[in-house]
Specification:
Layout (H helix, E strand, L loop, with lengths): L1 H24 L4 H5 L7 E2 L14 E6 L4 E4 L2 E2 L4 E7 L2 E5 L2 E4 L4 E11 L4 E11 L6 E2 L4 H4 E2 L4 E7 L6 E4 L2 E4 L1 E3 L4 E5 L6 E8 L5 E9 L9 E12 L5 E2 L2 H10 L5 E8 L6 E6 L2 E2 L20 E2 L3 E7 L2 H9 L2 E6 L1 E10 L3 E10 L5 E2 L1 H8 L7 E8 L6 E6 L2 E2 L20 E2 L3 E7 L2 H9 L2 E6 L1 E8 L1
Parallel strand pairs: 2-9, 11-18
Antiparallel strand pairs: 1-4, 3-7, 5-6, 5-8, 8-9, 10-12, 12-16, 13-14, 13-17, 15-16, 17-18, 19-27, 20-26, 21-25, 21-27, 22-23, 22-24, 22-26, 28-36, 29-35, 30-34, 30-36, 31-32, 31-33, 31-35
C-alpha cells in the first residue's frame, strides 16, 4: 500500500517536473539562452513599426526639445552590437539610446551585428517637430525638396527670415532672405546624387533641422511648376494698382520664359464692374497694348479681363513679355477686386534626345526611344521643340514628322499641290534656333503606329524636347 502511494507521488512529481521543463523551454527569452556566436542576429522588439506600401512606419513623434529614447532587445545578446544611424550617420552604439535630434523627418536605421560579422537591421521614420519660433520649410513644393546641383533653389516655410546659412552634407552655403516673397534662396551644392538632411543656421550660429532634401543631376520630375512670387492682400482700383517690389520683379525675371503662365489670384469686391490685367507700364504683359490702342481693331485696347467671385486669371508670357520686363516692373491694374497671390508656372521641358545629327534629305533623324518617351506623356497641346543650327549655304528647312508626314497636320510632300495644305510644311530658318510643333489629334494618331522623325535639309539637330 505504502509502495503504491510512493509510486503514485513519484509519477506525479515526474509529470510535474516534465511540464515545468517544457514550460521553461518555451519562454520568450529562449533565444537569449540558445542562440550562439555563429547564429544570425535578430532584433526582437515588436514595438518597431513595419510601415505600409514600402514606406517605413513612424517609431516616434516628438518635439525637438525632447530626446529620442528607445530600448532594443537582440539575440545572441552576448555576441551582438547595436548601432543607431540617423539619416545614414551613426549617432550611437548600444542597446538604449537617449539622444537629442534636430527637427525634421529622419530615417532611423537600427543595425544589429554579431562578432562574426553577421548583420540585420530595421528601418523606420523618426519625426521631430520644430518649436513655434523655429525656422522650418513647409515641404509643400516638390521643386524645393527635389533639386538639381548648381541651381538656385528656394525654401518657403515658417520664420525663414532667421536663416543666414544652410548646411548640406557638411557644406555651408550662404542663404539670402527675400522679404517680399518670404522665402530663402540658396545655391544647391555640387554633391553626389542622393538624399541629404538639411540644416538651417541663424545669425547666432544656432542650428535648426530643415528636413530631408533630395539632390539629383537629372531629376525625373518636371523642373518647372507653379511657384509663388507674392502673397498678401491688395485692393485694386484704377488709383491703387499693385506694383512689384525690386525683389519680386527680380524673382519674376529669373523664372519667366516664353510660355510661362503668370497667375493672378483675385476676388471681386465691386458691385458696378470688375476687371483686371497683368501689365508693365499699364501695357498688357502679353501683347504690350494699352488703352491708347483701344480704337485699333487689331488690339481692342489693353484687354482687361472681366470676372466674378474668387478666381485665377492666367497670362501666358510671350516674346513681348520678355521685352517689357527688361525695363519695367510687373503691375496688376484694373477695378474692383482684391489681389491675394501671384504665381508663375515655368515651362516644363522633358529632354527626349540630345547629341549632334546632320539632317539632310538622305539622313533624317529617327529615334524609337524618343518616340516611346514622348508617347508616355504626350497629349493634344504638348509642344515638341527641336534645337537646330543651319549648316547649308543654299537653303535650310526642317520639320518634325512621322513617316515623312508633318506631325501636326499629317500632310506630306504628296499634298503640295493642294491649296489646303501647301505640302508637308517644312519651316525655313537661319542660324541657331528652336522650332516648335504643337501636337494635335492627328499627331496622336500618327504616334500610335509611327516613329518620331526630324526631316529637312541643311542643318544639325542638337536636341529634341517636349513640354
Amino acid at each position: 500500500m505504502i509502495t503504491k502511494n510512493i509510486s503514485k507521488y513519484l509519477a506525479m512529481f515526474l509529470v510535474g517536473f516534465g511540464l515545468a521543463a517544457t514550460t521553461s523551454c518555451s519562454t520568450d527569452n529562449d533565444a537569449f539562452f540558445t542562440a550562439g556566436e555563429d547564429d544570425m542576429p535578430r532584433i526582437l522588439n515588436t514595438d518597431i513599426p513595419e510601415g505600409k506600401g514600402g514606406e517605413p512606419g513612424t517609431i516616434a513623434n516628438i518635439e525637438r526639445t525632447e530626446n529620442f529614447v528607445f530600448d532594443v532587445q537582440v539575440t545572441p545578446a552576448d555576441y551582438t552590437t547595436v548601432s543607431w544611424l540617423i539619416d545614414d550617420e551613426k549617432v550611437f552604439e548600444g542597446l538604449s539610446i537617449n539622444q537629442p535630434v534636430l527637427a525634421g523627418d529622419h530615417i532611423l536605421k537600427i543595425v544589429a551585428t554579431t562578432t562574426k560579422g553577421l548583420s540585420t537591421s530595421r528601418t523606420c521614420l523618426l519625426k521631430v517637430r520644430p518649436l513655434a519660433g523655429d525656422p522650418y520649410p513647409n515641404r509643400k513644393d516638390i521643386h524645393e525638396t527635389l533639386v538639381k546641383q548648381g541651381t538656385t533653389a528656394t525654401i518657403h516655410g515658417d520664420n525663414m527670415s532667421k536663416v543666414a546659412k544652410i548646411i548640406i552634407n557638411g557644406q555651408e552655403i550662404a542663404a539670402t532672405y527675400n522679404a517680399a516673397g518670404d522665402y530663402v534662396e540658396y545655391t544647391v551644392p555640387a554633391v553626389a546624387d542622393g538624399t541629404y538632411f538639411m540644416k538651417l543656421v541663424d545669425a547666432d550660429g544656432f542650428i535648426y533641422g530643415g528636413g530631408l532634401i533630395e539632390i539629383n543631376e537629372n531629376p525625373e520630375y518636371p523642373v518647372g511648376g507653379e511657384q509663388e512670387l507674392w502673397s498678401g492682400s491688395h485692393a485694386i482700383d484704377w488709383s491703387t494698382p499693385w506694383e512689384a517690389s525690386e525683389d519680386v520683379n527680380a524673382a519674376l525675371k529669373k523664372k519667366a520664359a516664353v510660355g510661362s503662365i503668370l497667375r493672378l489670384y483675385v476676388t471681386r469686391t465691386a458691385d458696378d464692374y470688375c476687371q483686371g490685367c497683368a501689365a508693365v507700364g499699364w501695357r498688357n504683359i502679353c501683347t504690350g497694348y494699352s488703352d491708347d490702342d483701344a480704337d485699333k481693331d487689331v488690339t481692342g485696347g489693353r484687354g482687361d479681363t472681366p470676372f466674378d467671385g474668387t478666381t485665377v486669371l492666367e497670362f501666358k508670357l510671350t516674346e513681348k513679355s520678355m521685352e517689357l520686363l527688361e525695363d519695367g516692373k510687373l503691375q496688376v491694374v484694373g477695378h474692383g477686386f482684391d489681389l491675394t497671390k501671384i504665381t508663375i508656372e515655368t515651362p516644363v521641358e522633358t529632354e527626349l534626345w540630345a547629341g549632334s545629327h546632320a539632317v539632310d534629305w538622305s539622313t533624317p533623324w529617327e529615334n524609337a526611344d524618343a518616340t516611346t518617351k514622348l508617347k508616355s506623356f504626350a497629349k493634344v497641346g504638348t509642344t515638341v521643340h527641336i534645337y537646330v543650327e543651319r549648316t547649308a549655304d543654299d537653303y535650310c528647312q526642317a520639320c518634325v514628322a512621322v513617316g515623312w508626314r508633318n506631325i501636326c497636320t499629317g500632310y506630306s510632300d504628296d499634298d503640295a499641290d493642294k491649296d489646303v495644305t501647301g505640302g508637308r510644311g517644312d519651316t525655313p530658318f537661319d542660324g541657331t534656333t528652336v522650332l516648335d510643333f504643337v501636337l494635335t489629334e492627328k499627331s496622336m494618331e500618327l504616334l500610335e503606329t509611327g516613329t518620331l522623325q526630324v526631316v529637312g535639309h541643311g542643318f544639325n539637330l542638337l536636341k529634341v524636347t517636349a513640354e
